[in-house]
Model the fold of this input.
Amino acid sequence: MRGMTHLAVAVAVAELFSGNVQADPLDSHPAVVRAKSAVKTLATQAKATVDDDFQVRDVILDNDGREHVRMDRFYKGLRVIGGDVVVHNEKSGMTRAMSHTMAAPLALETAATLDADDAHAYAEALFGRQMNGRTKSSLVIYARGARPVLAYEVYVEGTAPDKTPMEMHYIIDAHSLQLLDKWDDVHTAATQGTGKALTEGTVTLTTDSQSTGGFALRDPSRGSHYVTNMKNRTSGNGTLFTDSDNVWGNFSTTDTATVAVDAQYGQNKTWDYYKNVHGRNGIANDGRGAFSRVHYSRNYVNAFWSDSCFCMTYGDGDGTTYLPLVALDVAGHEMTHGVTSRSANLTYSGESGGLNEATSDIFGTMVEFYANNSASSPNYLIGERIFKASYQQANPTKALRYMFKPSLDGKSPDCYSSSLGSLDVHYSSGVANHFFYLLAEGAVVPTGFSLTKNDLVCNGNTGLTGIGRDAAAKIWYRALTVYMTSNTNYAGARTATLKAATDLYGSGSANYNAVNAAWAAVSVQ
Done:
């Protein structure tokens, strides 16, 4: 199964606050029919009961005929957070395996002791800032903890003090009002970050001619993704960039279109990378382009992806230390959050949240290497081109995160420990970033850093050799889209990548063994 490519046939996402499982046109697909039959006939393996229903979210068909059907679980009509399952069938239709994190079948009552108003009031108190719109909630089964719990998932929108929009989910016990989990659907870079681009030099753009004359910064060849100008506002979706001569920007922030070039270039390279390397047709794999908003707020030192607008947003930095956050790896990072939300949907808290962030760092880096732009040489640093003092250096050493040695940022651990899940997800991501670097490159010290090989590994294995970036990325992508589920932790990521390596290169192959060795080198056994 070497050189395998994959075709994602369709995506069907459940409505967040729907209490019922709706029939989907994809339900009649033979692979889905077989998968739904499997979770019933192999209920013990699926940890399913007669009260469980399954709604298809994604189907992947391998060239050799294998099928991978991802489904969300509903129990007595309630969505099960952490209950998603991927059914893996052979070409013959025989079920080979199932990926999920359920420890046992669900068996609990679904009548809440507390009503939704109580949960709303508590969530709003926890939110503690100006809200936008009405608080919403739905009863769910929360199955990410030690035992399943009936809970309210409460959704609150608002704005953080630094003007970043917030789309918070609070999981609140429907009996005790205990906060069980929380996460934000706005996935920030936690960073401060062509045409004539600011960071990428002169680049070629595909634009859209207008019937009224002139050009729009919209790319019909890539899902019609486009860039808008927020003009320092924080609400709305801004105004589409247009131009009379189809020459955009001036390499400087004195022209508002300059950073729009960087943003469009980032969208282009991210689109091209996923399509040409992984066969993915856009972020959601549906051929639809996202859009980017630039000049968001004032002195805003961040960038973020939001699923609700299916868009990427960039701040202008503070003008002193940080440039606009339109660096290529930041763009690839943020748009990968959209890829993750439409595949494994790794929950943005605990270890799964760290893996979500790491996935964005990994593929943001791979987009940078794919572009291979001499104006901003690719590397394993995250956000190095947003620092005003060093963005034009050939080999910058100042960055937000360092994949080869995460602790260089002063907050991220190099090695796994049982307390990892308690960290902010931008720091717990470091161990997976570290794993990917070692898998791709081995124990090799990057240029410009005074480190030893021993500094790069947690187990003394300084002889560790890499399999190359492309092979490592194919393994991580298959693990993400086929084997990981919303509640996957670091142990589960190890299992998922070993399964992916088996599919792509064979069990016991050099690449399979390298995956095992790289996880051991970051203390994940």
About this structure: The chain has eleven helices and 22 strands.
